[in-house]
Design brief:
By secondary structure, the chain is an alpha+beta fold. It contains six helices and twelve strands. The protein has two domains: about 20-165, Phosphorylase Kinase, domain 1; about 170-270, Transferase(Phosphotransferase) domain 1 (Transferase(Phosphotransferase), domain 1, Orthogonal Bundle).
Length: about 270
């Protein structure tokens, strides 16, 4: 038996009402982001998560601002975005079945429950969408696509890198005003994002100027739970075309001459 360490000091800090112990220790390796992890990721079991407010509300999920920090250790502190999918206590969770064609669940019971839209089925669906988004973020991050780094997934919550300065979120592309030269740079970045998805055989499925953030001149794509496999999903090509049209039309309306058809043709070339 090892002798008791008299120098061992136990923390006297307890989480307050708007806090919780870090959920990192309770996650499994498969529920954590790709390695190597960024240096800013806080993995200490002594860390506390503090709610800082709501970033965005939606029909299916809400995004919160979280500070994960070890008390009295400024070197271990980070601001994160926590996306929480609504479960069985909310009746407005919905996603078009068009996105999920080609996907399979491990248990047939879960598939039936989701189809029946029972309370259990809604809870399963919420967890499935969280896992889908975490998986898509992880895959795209490893492929070099500019997405928030996915820190972890736990139940119906996805914790990810916060894109912004301090606690101020980066603006959406839809809100930015740029010169023609700056617009061209932003468009080229969006085109590269579309190309990267196509090379992976995927379409974002819901791409628009509202889920593209612009931070320090860099475009970052968010909201990835509905990413579709273009080959496995019979709606894949239609969604790829819609992604192209949505973003190209936005740039055209702001005076930049781009052709959605040309972009789509380029993307299709990466699929075969």
């Amino acid at each position: 038996m090892q002798p008791f360490d008299e120098n061992l000091v136990f923390s006297t800090v307890e989480p307050l009402d708007d806090q919780r112990w870090s959920t990192w220790p309770a996650t499994t390796p498969s529920e954590r982001g790709p390695q190597p992890r960024p240096e800013w990721v806080v993995t200490s079991a002594a860390a506390i998560d503090t709610e800082l407010g709501v970033l965005k509300t939606g029909k299916e999920a809400d995004v919160f601002l979280i500070e994960r920090a070890v008390p009295d250790d400024p070197a271990q502190s980070v601001i994160l975005a926590a996306k929480r999918y609504r479960g069985s206590d909310r009746s407005d969770f919905h996603r078009s079945a068009a996105y999920t064609e080609g996907r399979r669940m491990r248990r047939s019971r879960d598939t039936r429950a989701v189809a029946s839209k029972s309370a259990y089925g809604r809870a399963v669906a919420a967890g499935a969408w969280a896992l889908a988004e975490f998986g898509a973020l992880s895959s795209m991050y490893e492929a070099g696509v500019p997405v928030p780094y996915p820190v972890q997934v736990s139940g119906t919550e996805v914790l990810m890198e916060f894109i912004g300065t301090g606690t101020m979120a980066a603006p959406r592309l839809a809100a930015v005003r740029r010169t023609p030269e700056e617009l061209r740079s932003l468009f080229e970045q969006v085109r590269e994002i579309l190309v990267a998805f196509a090379r992976a055989g995927c379409a974002h499925g819901d791409l628009s100027p509202y889920n593209l953030l612009v931070h320090d001149g860099r475009v970052v794509v968010i909201d990835l739970p509905q990413v579709v496999d273009i080959v496995a999903n019979p709606n894949g090509m239609a969604m790829l075309e819609r992604d192209c049209v949505n973003v190209c039309d936005w740039f055209v309306r702001r005076g930049l001459e781009v052709d959605a058809g040309e972009v789509l043709s380029e993307l299709v070339g990466y699929l075969w």
